[in-house]
Amino acid sequence: MSTSSTNGYRRLRFTESDGTDYGRIFSAEYNGRDLGTETYVAEGTRYEYTIVGDDDVTLRTMRAEGGRRGGVIGPRNDHVVFWLTRGRLEMHFADRTRVIEPGSPYIASASEAYRFESADTVYNGLHVSDPFLRSVGAELGYRLPDGPLLFDQQDEAIARREPLRRLVQDLAPALLDDRVVGPMRTALNRRLAVVVLDTFPIRNRGQDVPVANRLRDAVRHIEAHAQDRPSVPEIAAACGLSQRGLQDVFARTLGTTPNRFMRDHRLDCVRRELLRAAGDEGVTPVARRWGFTNPGRFAAAYRERFGEDPAATLRGSRAARPDSGRTSWRVRRAVAHIVEHADGDLTVDEIADAAGVRPRRLQQLFRQECGLSPMAYVRSVRSVRDAGSRNTGAGIGGTG
Predict the structure, then answer these.
(1) pLDDT tens digits, residue range 225-261?
(2) Handedness of CA 165, 170, 176, 180 (dihedral sign)
(3) Phi, psi angle pair for 357, to nearest 5°
(4) Residues 6+ away with beta carbon under 8 Å from 100
(5) Would you tell me which of 33, 51, 189, 233 could form a disulfide with 57, CB atoms 3.0–4.6 Å apart?
(6) pLDDT (tens digit per residue) in 89-129
(7) What is the rounded distance in angstroms from the CA atom of residue 156 to the CA atom of residue 400?
(8) What is the 3-state secondary structure (H, E, C) of 316-335?
(9) Looking at residue 251, what DSSP letter applies?
């Protein structure tokens, strides 16, 4: 284990190569009750666990290769939001079992104990202390339960926007800088805590509706009625917030305004149609369908968002898909790599490298053109293969 500390800031690293026992990670760093019991790691497993932050918020990563890990994690002081970028994790709670795969974030509330099992995983996490999260909630005027602070998972409408992951990426240079301490670090920590509170619904609040649910309803209303271009008062009324409250929650969590969010969503819809365009329909009819009536302003907004003219998108899309007319060449390259390597341990980074784009851009392209994430596409390919294998004996399997 290596460690350094400056004014409350700390950076720690646990690995099997420096002799750190796997169970010590839990006993040293989760600060709860009954942690690390029944902990095991298969012989030959390589692991690296890193921690950066202070007592209020830490960023953490776990990379494990070559074998299975497991154990029991009891109630602790931190709420944990994490993403898998590789592998599979099983979490067994008292009343349910969850299987976590790469994709959307998952939150484990501080008071909930669970048993876990995983293999060959890469994990990125954000740990937020319960007292700090409660203090931020009190500042926001949230009605918090007197008992344990329990969270539900993000709704898909919010999860696909990735507000917390985008904020972590934006703040990472400062969060990893040991010179950022005191009030400056607390301000950064607070921004992260606010997004956790705004996007993960809080349970056990009586008749009070969590802001996370109201944000979800606002996003869904915009997506469902984008062609009608609803006004801010209409969106606020649909989700049960005041206009000021609606503006505030969009600024805090998504870094934008409701109107800008709706405009960007309409631009995304135009781009999706252009990428899937069939026949001879041009840009203008598609843009008008989504409420863009001024060609010059539309083209400028489109260029600002996507870095190319809409006509170039349409030309490139048609030229790149002589067969199905559905996907761009980068997505087709990614799909070919997935199909060829579906039986292996694929990651988003590997697929993005094969397609020649950054992982985040790959996620955007798949959602725009295929309506699902790259890893969801991997699972669908594997599911089809598994079904084919099961049904071949019954004469259902075939080739195309």
Answers:
(1) 999 999 999 999 999 999 999 999 999 999 999 999 9
(2) negative
(3) -135, 170
(4) 84, 88, 89, 90, 91, 106
(5) 189
(6) 999 998 899 999 888 899 999 999 888 999 889 989 999 99
(7) 33
(8) HHHHHCCCCCCCCHHHHHHH
(9) H
